[in-house]
Amino acid sequence: MKNNDCIEVDLHDPLKKxxxxxxxxGLQEQVIRSVVNNKDTFAIMPTGGGKSxxxxxxxxxxxxxxxxxxxxxxxxxxxxxxxxxxxxxxxxAHVLNSSLxxxxxxxxxxxxxxxxxxxxxxxxESLSKKDxxxxxxxxxxxxxxxxxxHCISEWGHDFRPEYRNLRVILEQFKQSIPIIALTATAxxxxxxxxxxxxxxxxxxxxxxxxxxxxxxxxxRTKTNQVDSDIIRFVKQxxxxxxxxxxxxxxxxxxxxxxxxxxxxxxxxxxAGLDAKSRVSHQDQFLKDDCDIIVATIAFGMGIDKPDVRFxxxxxxxxxxxxxxxxxxRAGRDGGEGHCLAFxxxxxxxxxxxxxxxxxxxxxxxxxxxxxxxVAYAETSISRRKFILHYFGEDFDNETxxxxxxxxxxxxxxxxxxxxxxxxxxxxxxxxxxxxYKSKELVKTLLGEMNAVIQSHKTNTLSVFGSxxxxxxxxxxxxxxxxxxxxYLIKEIEAYGLIRITARGKAFLDKPESFMMTEDHKFEGQExxxxxxxxxxxxxxxxxxxxxxxxxxxxxxANEVPPYAVFxxxxxxxxxxxxxxxxxxxxxxxxxxxGKAKRYxxxxxxxxxxxxxxxxxxxxxxxxVKSTGINSALKLYLIQSIDRxxxxxxxxxxxxxSMEKLVSEMETIxxxxxxxxxxxxxxxxxxxxxxxxxxxYFIKSDSDSISEATAAFDGDYEEEELRLYRxxxxxxxxx
Length: 734
Hints:
Blueprint: H1 12-19, H2 28-36, E1 41-44, H3 53-61, E2 65-69, H4 73-84, E3 93-96, H5 102-113, E4 119-122, H6 124-127, H7 130-136, E5 141-146, H8 166-171, E6 179-183, H9 188-198, E7 204-207, E8 215-221, H10 226-236, E9 241-245, H11 249-261, E10 266-269, H12 275-286, E11 292-295, E12 308-313, H13 320-327, E13 337-343, H14 345-355, H15 360-378, H16 383-390, H17 407-410, E14 415-417, H18 419-431, H19 438-446, H20 451-455, H21 472-484, E15 488-491, E16 497-500, H22 502-509, E17 515-517, H23 541-558, H24 562-565, H25 568-577, H26 582-586, H27 592-613, H28 631-642, H29 647-653, H30 658-670, H31 678-681, H32 687-699, H33 705-711, H34 718-733
């Protein structure tokens, strides 16, 4: 497309006439002026920046029909409805896709031919059909708008191969058609990819700041209490709208149910729901009939709800682009927006496994994007600065808007002088001739061998092992901070190779002070429980002593070992949550209805008295009700054992290991339900062994398997002891 000089056109009158607005937002006016003047245009505007108007207004002003390529049918429908709402002509905007019948398709084409339709929304697949191409040869096309243009790039977070054919399709129209490409997320690499593929290398580029100054960014450790943590957060923001993102449909359904039974007005949204349910749930959320949407990434693109007050990521996304896009749905009205992500490295490992079956190039890209996401989660520098650096934008926390709005800035970690360490790092990059990614660089500094390092004979260099006194975590943090500070650069094209910049070389020539903070460590923290005001679990030791004493009395009265009444971890949870009703007691791990009915009254009476006498503030939000999601599995296991099916067959039928099956059976038995597995144990133990095992467990103060293994000096396997314990607990405790 040939770019002409700009012709001055009044844009404010049409803006007022069509949309009722008196002024433009951000870069809108400049972008629209470029499109009106038939120039190829590339607009990079953050979510909530008003991208849609950038092609809607020019389309209404210009002769002919504007074609808008969009990836989502729901998004198209919303926009068509909005445009029809400002015109007396229903045909002013149409959707053209495979869902239309022949009559509807004919009506769309007729409206275009008669000059009624100004905006036509199409999916790229529909555009590529021969009869569609043939039709567009005969009509005036004002311009092509490519919405969500990052879909073109393999480096984008939502790559769609069919988007890459748009240029080829356009050439078949035999018209000179200007192009406007729009996206809310584009790294320099993705930007380059889009312009090259669409053939608009000389386009006018408008790039708004990616800073969303009203958003607060926070990352917390993801523990096995993550549902409790989310419920607590949502209840603290009661009555406010929020979106919770999960990676799998199953987790969406489970979490939505958990929220519902805990009195939170939540609905699920994912591609597996039928279309009617999806539309209904989306509408309820938009109309404030529902507070929380629990969703996969299928939800949100093009959804304009200005007052979303928080976005929670139950699972870390696959890329920073995705994260930015999804968090960008919070606080579009400029008000409060809390972006909370739960992070555990084991989730990253899962995502890596998902990628293992893909082509190698795709794996490399996926891994590079994921590594940046890990870096964001673990960094201890300003999260806002980190995100903006990723999108090629400099940010100064002292002067920039929202500079203190993240957990790292509010609760900063101590800084240490890292001048010498940075010198070592930069030397390592130079001496290894810039051929390594972060991982290999760290191994070089630590003096650790692998096949790649060996093949390049890096172990012969002076830098090999020069940083061995520091941990790998330190070096990884330094690399990330050196990248943000501009001493190093990551070559995206080369899947993340680290290279030194001119600034880095200047630092080597004349080193100066460099303060760094070590990254957060998330490994091995999965079992830590986070409480509202504490960073670690603090038991009520006085109550614990009282409960242990009562348990002993109850055990003696029933002639069973104390652990057969309630296990220690159940008592510990009681000391955290102070259950005072049967319903609350049932939801304590390892209790269940059976034990609650049998032993519960005495324990509830004690806790009630204790709470009243000591004026205990009970953390109600920690009492998370169960959804009964696993009730189907529980029923299947009970029925299968009643039918005396071999345990191996039961495990195989449910695709579980024996270890997993035994764990599920323990959950059932420890909660007070009997399981009779005598039929299975008859083949496992003789009578003398059964008697020996009974004698041990009835006299033991603990049901610990490791203690039992030690007591029998390894005569029994761990699995054998766990299976006998199931029999013992079923008969004695239940």
